[in-house]
Amino acid sequence: MPNRRHFLRSASALITLPALESMGFKAFAAPQRAAPPKRLVFLGFGWGVTNETWFPDVKKTGAAWELSEGLNPLARHQKDITVVQGCSNKFANEAHWGSTFWLTGANRYAEPGQSFHNSISADQVAAAQLGQETRYASIQLSTADAQNSGHGPGLSLAWDLRGKPVSGLENPVAAYHRLFSNETTPLSERQAMLAQKRSVLDAVLEDAKRVQNDLTKTDIDKLDEYFQSIRDIELRLGKDEQWLSVAKAKPPVAEPKPGLAGKDEIEVMYDLIIAALQTDSTRVLTYRQPVGTLLQSLGTKIAPHDMSHYSPGDRMAASQKRDATQSHLLAGLLDKLKATKEADGTSLFDHVALAYGSNIRTIHYLDNCPTLLTGGGAKLKLGHHLVLPKDTPLCNVWLTLLHGLGIEANRHGDSTGVVKELQA
Fold first, then answer.
1. Pick from 335, 337, 376, 402: which is nearest to 82 by CA?
2. Share of the chain above pLDDT 70, in %
3. What's the whole-model pTM score?
């Protein structure tokens, strides 16, 4: 409480002084609103794009660039998007894997004797820091049509610290309930279930420690990986305990109808991304989008793989229609990010870093991965077209994103440094 020096006295009155900081009233002054948190969103699609009509003209770079035909639906957002050309993952060698290594830049043959290896994805690097204060460190959205959509191995766009796939929510209904449906099981029962899981985990860990002696190097490596998986489970249990008695946020959107696919699925998933960020349920999201069902919803009967091997004619027309529709949906998402207000009057867009693209350029080509960046959250130079030297590591872009979000990673994947031309 303020002391008597904070009042003026006269013979007949006691007059309260205004709240002056120099008199120790800082704590009693109007509270300063905390700055809105940083968020990160990755939107990935398979099968690449139409090479001839998606990429902007390489001769028109910087701020004086022109939108391509495939990106034209984004015209109203041109000053807020940057397209980057010249990037690729140098180890990528599977022409039908549009997202497996997109966010990791890993060498699938890095592990001797193994035919598949992956590493942590950029979103999970961010989630380790940005996800500490939210119910969900990250949310992975996927689609039941993933394998028909040119994505390759994985359960979502996300891969954990051990390079293992992170599961994704494959439809809008599942995503909605994960985000906003409260548990119906009584709190005491949920506490008991968590305690039981911890007890089982402790027992398993104790058994594993007993077999550490006299193991070969290969077995020791396997056991280290096992212990890491135990630590991952412990972290998840700790997160569950932290939020056990906290009700989920009230949903700002209606529950989606079941059975959505293609264009409708993407549109509703975008609405759920907005809702998740708006309610601060998470600050890191990835979405592995459908392509096969998108084509179906557009009325084309051409199979997605056939479409990706286009030549002038129906296949190329289908590919171009796919590009335009994806750009139209992305424009709608940006509209909503800009329209959603934060507590301080800024927009959600101002505090989100969003990357959109694929590990496949077109057909079977894995160089010059289509890459579009937007959002004000990572201090990037927006409204530009950058053409970087051929085969610049795509992970340089991801490292630049991470640094812009305040995540001081030394490197990521096969990165060789940040992209200075991207930094605002």
1. 376
2. 82
3. 0.85
